[in-house]
Amino acid sequence: MNLWVIRIFFLQLCALAGYAVSQYRPEIIEGGIYGLVIGCGLGGVLIGIDHILKGFSLRAFSAATFGLALGAVVAWLVDNTQLFIWADEKTGWMLRLGLFLSFGYIGMILAMRSNKDDFSLIIPYVRFKAQNLTENLNVLDTSVIIDGRIADLVEARFIEGVMVVPKFVLQELQFIADAEDPIRRARGRRGLERLNRLQQSQRVEVKIHEADVPEEKEVDAKLLRLTRTLGGRLYTNDHNLAEIAELQSIPCFNLHKLAAVLKPVIVPGELFNLRLVRDGKEKGQAVGYLSDGTMVVVNHAQTLVGQQVPVQVSSLVQTGAGVIVFAELKLAAAA
Length: 335
Known about the structure:
The chain is an alpha/beta fold. The chain contains 13 helices and ten strands. Helices cover 51% and strands 18% of the residues. The strands form two sheets. A five-stranded parallel β-sheet has the order 3-2-1-4-5. Strand 4, helix 11 and strand 5 form a beta-alpha-beta unit. Helix 1 packs antiparallel against helix 2. The N and C termini lie far apart (74 Å).
């Protein structure tokens, strides 16, 4: 429901309340017109305060209330020290009012600037989280959504829990999908398609998290702060983001590291079948690729491009781009 519908309804209730007061307590408000005007005025003031406080979250309100209470306690302790015993009654009242206002304001500001870890220092045995919260929260960044392998891991039941997609990540994904560069645009659209596939999966629940982190400007910083706040685990393909998360003791899962760990180990003399996809650089060579993308160069196989043939590993060469496997045909063994 639109908020303005509720506000107009509330304004009408205030006007009716003012009219009712004028009818039942005429000594307070004389005349129904005055009652309607005063009721509308009070409702308008409250709606104005509501508009001013737009974006003021429940967390900020609770923090401000806690800070106000803490500031009032400190002011009360200072007042009980008999610091103002020399002042007369009128001056002492003004000093106490200034004392409570000052400490209350400082307490609210400090509480609103703090995070939940700061509160745990003040109240060491209290943690502001639901005790019945047992679900695993997995926060996804833009790179891991575009990559798409997260959906395969979910379908294979290697990852369980709730997949959390922050709203600012979804906005970044949409921005990439609307980019003028065709390559970036294709990556963004692929990410949206794979996110849609993940949402349709029966294995996990996907939630779009509406919360933002206005104190942070960069998406990576927002991700780290939100993951820490939710007590979840961050999934990413960004090496630098994973390193920063590790430095801040935030649980992080890098899919590239997983792929490197699960990379098949190839040793000289190993036999396997390989599909040849193109000619090699040298005469008579053909090239194929393993499931992890490793390039395999097969000697004396140029005429068999497009076919799947048995090969035997002869040697491995480490390069800056990775490992290149050199192999020989084993047609005789296949026969």
